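Quick one:
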Amino acid sequence: MAKNKHRRERLARELKRKKESQSPFPRVLIVCEGEKTEPLYFDDIRKQNRVPTAHIRVLPANGTQPRQVVDFAEATFRESKEYEWVFAVFDRDAHTTYLDALNRAAALDEKLKNNDGQKVRVIAVPSVPCFELWLLLHFIEIHAFSHRHEIIQRVATHIAGYEKGLEGVYAATEPMLALAMERARRLKHRFDPRQGDDPVTLVHEVVELLRSIRPSR
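Output:
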């Protein structure tokens, strides 16, 4: 009897320690096609909210094709199985594996399990034509497709000195974030990202999640 009692008490202590060690907010992995622009942008949100990298990890992929981004995100998750959310962020551009990447992410969504036995959300985050569309939405409405070079040029008229890899982009655009999110939602409602020839971006969905993750005060 005494032995069983001690065993129950030990198990109770172990369960308590496990619950106390569990994260109070989700663990997120973001893998980006871009080496600098997108990682810097998402990591700035993490830093502003003072969330450790253990909970929000942002990485560039080891290739620029969308399918490579999804595959790298999957492989990185499988190394540790530490995450509840896995995002693969990539542009439409003229990539030949764009639809393949969307399909692969959809096939993985809620099919993988993390180290807590929870189903993992694996979500593709495309932008058509490119990530800079999301930035431009902070300043103006977009209704029709434009080439990536035109989009980037238009962003530079609103963010002085804008170029790939520029630091401080999140801080420069945050005051207009609510407008950008509303505009992005309207584009998503209007256009199907799978078509790949209409302006649409799902970056706002990642931003919304990241901004909700804050350590307790």
